[in-house]
Amino acid sequence: MNKARRNILFGISTNLSILQDRITSELVTEELESIKEELQSLKERLDECREDEENYADNMPENLQGSTRYDNAMDAVSNMEDAEDNIEEVINSIDNGDFEEAADYISDAIDNIQDSAF
């Protein structure tokens, strides 16, 4: 994974931490809608980063496919997919009014993002 994608993932992870704090505080409906929009935006940025990493792996020369570099790239893709799923679960949990579960899913997303970046 290159430095630019790592920086994007770090930014997404930081923003998720901030949103986690907001979710666990007293919120009004308007704030929840704003948080859900921010989560959707972060998920889209994560999806773009995942696609870039997947293209990177897919475009490796054949002699590198199956190498540690290739395996690391594909592991990062898998972790980012898991983080995208976690973010979707955060949104669903907010819709269901289960903010504790939403905070747990954010923690899972952050872990998956960090695993994909390093």
Shape, principal axes of CA atoms: elongated
End-to-end span in angstroms? Answer: 8 Å
- Number of domain modules: 1
Estimated radius of gyration:
15 Å
> What is the overall pLDDT average?
91
Please mark out the parts with pLDDT under 50 across 5 or more consecutive residues, or reply none: none
Quantity of strands, as a count: 0
Instruction: Outline the biggest β-sheet.
Output: none
The topology string of helices and strands comes to HHHH
Secondary-structure-derived class: mainly alpha
| Helix amount | over 70%
SS field, number of helical segments: 4
Percentage beta strand: under 5%
Report on this model:
The structure is a single chain. The protein has 4 helices and no strands. With 118 residues, the chain is mainly α. It has one domain (3-117). Helix 1 (3-24) runs antiparallel to helix 2, helix 2 packs antiparallel against helix 3 and helix 3 runs antiparallel to helix 4. The longest helix has 30 residues, at 29-58. The termini are close together. The relative contact order is 0.18. The model has no long low-confidence stretch (mean pLDDT 91).
